[in-house]
Structures
1.
Amino acid sequence: MTAAQPPTTTAPGDFDLDLKVAELKISGFTTFEDLVEPEKIDRVREAFMPRLERLKARESHEIHPKERGEVRAGKGRQQFVNRYTMHIPWEPPFSDPEIYENPVVLAFLERYWGTDDFHVTCYHSNNPYPGSEYQPWHRDIHLVTPHVGLPICPHFGVKFPLVDTSEENGSFEVMPGTQYLADPDMEKTYNDVLLRGDFPPAHRLNLKKGTFWVQDPRTLHRGTPNRSDHARGELVICYSLPWFRTSTIEMAKAEYEKLSDRGKAMLSRSSIVQP
Ligand SMILES: O=C(O)CCC(=O)C(=O)O
Ligand SMILES: [Fe+2]
């Protein structure tokens, strides 16, 4: 008999969650390696890429201010040159509890928010293809409380790349610690100021497949050029406190019925669509 293989993915007990919460509060992001087997991420990527390619074929003729299409057929847009966004349909292999109900992610969010009453509010993706360029520095959320940097953020993106990310293929770049900026007069100036001023070095999130990371959407960041020969796909699941009004997930009733009790609670605000 061969000895049992040690698990290759991590559990909540493998992390110092208080320290991870401190990282998120101080830096505006935190990373968790080895949350999902790389082979599972590969299967997600295999299902994802043909969809993204179809969307790209449809949208490549123009950069468009609005996402269009239906989630199941491909809702998204070319956001900047060679950089595509796409919603993820709530169906296998994307609707995997190991992903949206990941025990480490949920334990972390419960520790941060002090409650398990939060919702899954988006399933989306950001995908720089070869030839994409720097995005302007930006935040992903409007200033919820002008003049007051809320100590607790009500809404996060939990992201996971579908390939290892690097300086070459357009890894995410973040200016740590900027999540508490709350001067409304500065909101439209960040890109100009960061390009002209003298600041500490920005941080690149060069991540290996199977890593999940939590993005405080207030933290200044930008996409970077992809100079590789492949698309750098990254999926994002949003988790939000109940009072934070944002998007909802679309799913068929049969998919909702499959959810665990916890999944049903987290996805109770989903829009039920015809299969
Ligand atoms: O995925 C990336 O590298 C950055 C994308 C981004 O920040 C955005 O589109 O809001
Ligand atoms: Fe962004």
Note: Residues 56 and 183 are 37 Å apart (CA to CA).
2.
Amino acid sequence: MALLKPTHFKHEVPVLFHEPHVEGGFRPLHQPWGYYLASLFQRHNECLNTWTHLIALVMTLQRLYEFSQEFDLLYDPYMWPLLAGMITMILLYIGSSGAHCFQSRSELVHYTCFMVDYAGIGLYGLGSTILHYAYCSDPWLFSFMKHLYLPVAIFLSILVCVCCSISKTMYQRPYPFTRKVWQLASVILVYTWLILPVVHRLLICLETSQWDNSISHHLQQMVWFITSGFFFGSDIPQRFYPGKFDFLGHSHQLFHFCVMMTSYKQLDSVLLDIKQFENQIRARPMPSFFSTTGAVVFVSFANTLVVMAFREYVKRSHVSSSKKQNGCQNGIKHDKNS
Ligand SMILES: [Zn+2]
């Protein structure tokens, strides 16, 4: 195992690796891969960002095991949407924890890691759309949307990866407002699409005053998602006490925790909907490989191409110009902010 190295203060690492209001705990660049893996057990400013989504990964795998005991995930096509949704959660958490674990290795690795993270976010958007339309949608909405929800979800999932990669690679400080638009617009679009069946169900419940078992869990997953957006965008609490939350309590860790709770409550609500609407669900057209795991494979492939294309762009523009400018210390004039 590689030896652990002391961490650095902000001024000792390139601007690209800076986080707003984080003053220390930066791992050194250009170490062997094993060092970054071993640093899971070191105190640094990405440690808990990695652990929060590693724990989420273990929790999702545990739920996958539980569901596999209750449902036939492989041979019952009506359970394929559940399998596809869970695969995207697993990929999201692998991509996110891997990004935070290894991003400090170099500028190119940093860009690549976070673009893989964005690819995972796009995939999770697809998986959630498949889950909600298959199990949580009202019969009228499902029949109205049955030919539309998947192609739109595929398009939006790839769009998330493209737009977030543009926001990461094309802008420099001081950031223009358009950078935020690239970041937020595609995520809001895919979330609107994936949550539409749930909101429609809520409206029906409000209208009829009949609340079914899963609605409170759906409400909780929405509250956790909105809270995650608050922490992602606010830099709270570290903006009030710069340097005090570098290791524990940073807003990105709280954002990760909220994402974990979103997916956890989402699975609670989906499970209840599968049980209470089983007859309705089995009366719908049988899901196919292409409308479930096949779509996940397709978007994984497309997002891999997107990441590779932007990685090439970064290699040619940012990394080469940074080397020319000053060797390394203050390389690319970007902030991480991802
Ligand atoms: Zn993250």
Note: Residues 49, 96, 100, 252, 256 surround zinc ion (CB under 6 Å).
